[in-house]
Write the structure tokens for this entry.
Amino acid sequence: MTPEEFIRAYEKALASQDWSRVEPLVHNDACVTFSSGTVHKGRDAVKAAFEKNFSLIKDEEYSITNVHWVVKSETTAVYLFDFQWSGIIKDKPASGGGRGTSVLVNENNRWHLLVEHLGPKPP
């Protein structure tokens, strides 16, 4: 899998709202910061945060666009991106999006998300 293929697999896994599809892509030591400012350190904390979102947002659609590679080597990849989501929260349409930065590491020929930092789009 290339870093580009990782992004597509990660995007599809998140849109599935199924942690079992996301988990193989997340490093044990992952650290994810949501656009709300909450920080989740370690795969168990990331799992809890993602599963909470999955349970709150029904029929979610998630997309990653405008990827900009900062660094891409055989062992590390860093990219900036825009993200967009939409779904149903408490029976009402909801959506959001912003910009993100992710760090991937390649261990044993498998790419994993090590860091993801999500934030709002600038005004």
Observations:
- The domain at 3-119 is CATH 3.10.450.50 (Nuclear Transport Factor 2; Chain: A,).
- The longest helix spans residues 3-16.
